[in-house]
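Private note to self, pasted from the team thread so I don't lose it. Backbone tokens:
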């Protein structure tokens, strides 16, 4: 799915509230805001990196000076486990709230700057990791409102919470060999009204695409109205979304004569405009598929179902072919919808290696190989003195 970097190493900038806010080239001289570092990206050749000290940053509408480049994506990374020298561990919480009054649930307000006057295309070919975006209308959501343009982005191990959207993309033209990817992310919408969804996707394909535009891998998508939505009034474009090992929850189990949601997965205008590829995914909500403006086209939503596709719905609703209806409340699934811990796990297997100890383990050891011996994991050491032997 495309090469996101390593072909060029550009400039590195640091962000920390403890820095002196001078040039951003070290922890001691770090910029104190993400926007300062994003604005310092020197060119569009790609391969640039921003490393952020875990902390809370009251910022919104962020925009880099330059996009990345083919095979050289820019990176916004966080010292998640403390191995990069910041002296802290956890997420970088990017809070777009109004500092003294609360959540800024205002159109176009969120983590990236995307307005009718400013396209989010300057985030093209970026990789983001361990960002916790909240406090605004959109979490980790990119829109290219006034001009359709090619767009690629990779978001990993992050949390997006917004009134309208937890994450996603709109008005984009995806690249077949550089798709948009959300990996191990938790995306929450907080509102029922309007075009809200845990994740929203609207690609501007004039015909049904052969390959997915957006990939959600090991993600959790949650919202009061729906978990995944595509389309918008006035648009007649096609989108295709891949969901692999995901959890989708629409927080609505109304009665049919009450206020039921249109579906866990929704196409706004017409079912034909959305196709989803499901693999090893669990869904919870009133019903699986739905269409808001032309509900009679619900059956036109295209889908593939591979692996274990489970659905827990209101008991009077049918489950599409290829999906397993769940008759009992999936406790294990519902327990996973909350955002993950703000700090990394203590289990060292989940952490980056820290090469900070120079303790001598074995003199003259040149090779160490793990083997299974009598059912036990052992280390086979090869010790070869560098001198003193006879030929």
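Design output:
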């Amino acid at each position: 799915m495309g090469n996101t970097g390593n072909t060029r190493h550009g400039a590195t900038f640091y962000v920390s509230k403890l820095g002196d806010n001078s040039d951003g080239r070290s922890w001691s001289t770090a910029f104190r805001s993400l926007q300062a570092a994003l604005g310092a990206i020197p060119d569009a050749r790609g391969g640039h990196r921003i490393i952020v000290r875990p902390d809370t940053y009251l910022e919104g509408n962020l925009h880099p000076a330059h996009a990345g480049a083919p095979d050289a994506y820019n990176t916004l990374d966080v010292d998640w486990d403390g191995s990069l020298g910041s002296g802290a561990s956890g997420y970088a919480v990017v809070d777009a709230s109004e500092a003294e009054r609360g959540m800024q649930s205002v159109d176009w307000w969120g983590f990236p700057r995307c307005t009718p006057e400013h396209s989010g295309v300057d985030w093209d070919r970026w990789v983001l990791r361990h960002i916790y975006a909240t406090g605004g209308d959109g979490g980790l959501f990119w829109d290219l409102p006034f001009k359709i343009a090619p767009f690629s982005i990779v978001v990993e191990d992050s949390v997006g919470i917004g009134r309208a959207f937890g994450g996603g993309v709109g008005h984009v033209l995806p690249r077949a060999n550089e798709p948009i990817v959300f990996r191990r992310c938790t995306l929450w919408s907080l509102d029922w009204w309007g075009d809200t969804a845990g994740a929203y996707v609207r690609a501007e394909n004039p015909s049904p695409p052969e390959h997915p535009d957006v990939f959600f891998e090991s993600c959790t998508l949650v919202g009061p109205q729906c978990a995944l939505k595509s389309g918008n009034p006035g648009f007649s474009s096609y989108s295709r979304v891949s969901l692999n090992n995901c959890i989708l929850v629409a927080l609505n189990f109304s009665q049919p004569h009450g206020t039921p949601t249109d579906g866990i997965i929704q196409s706004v205008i017409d079912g034909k405009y959305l196709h989803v590829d499901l693999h090893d995914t669990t869904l919870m909500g009133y019903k699986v598929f739905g269409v808001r403006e032309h509900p009679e086209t619900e059956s036109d939503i295209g889908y593939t179902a591979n692996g274990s596709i489970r659905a827990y719905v209101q008991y009077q609703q049918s489950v599409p072919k290829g999906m397993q209806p769940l008759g009992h409340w999936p406790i294990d699934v519902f327990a996973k919808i909350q955002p993950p811990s703000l700090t990394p796990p203590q289990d060292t297997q989940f952490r980056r290696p820290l090469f900070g100890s120079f303790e001598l383990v074995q003199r003259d050891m040149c090779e160490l190989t793990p083997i299974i011996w009598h059912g036990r994991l052992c280390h086979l050491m090869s010790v070869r003195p560098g001198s003193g032997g006879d030929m």
